[in-house]
Amino acid sequence: MKIAEKERLDMFCYQCSQTARGTGCTVKGVCGKEATVARLLDNLLLATKGMAAYLYHARELGYTDTEIDAFLERAFYATFTNVNFDAEDLVRLAIEAGEMNVRTMRLLKKAHIETYGEPEPTEVQTGTVKGSGIIATGHSLKVLDELLKQTEGTGINVYTHSELLPAHGYPGLKKYEHLVGNLGKAWFDQKILFSKYPVAILGTSNCVSIPKEEYRDRMFTTGPARLPGVQHLAGYDYTPVIEKAKSLPELEEKPGDIILTTGFSKSVVLSLTDKIKQLVEAGKIRHFFLVGSCDSPLKKAEYYREFVQKLPQDTVVLTLACGKFRINDLNLGDIDGIPRLIDLGQCNDSIVAIDIATALAEIFGVGINELPLTLVLSWMEQKAVAILWSLLALGIKGIYLGPILPAWVNDDILKVLRENYDLRVIGNPEEDIKQILSA
Ligand code: SF4
Ligand code: SF4
Question: What pLDDT, on a 0 to 100 scale, did the predictor assign at position 1?
Answer without folding.
Answer: 41
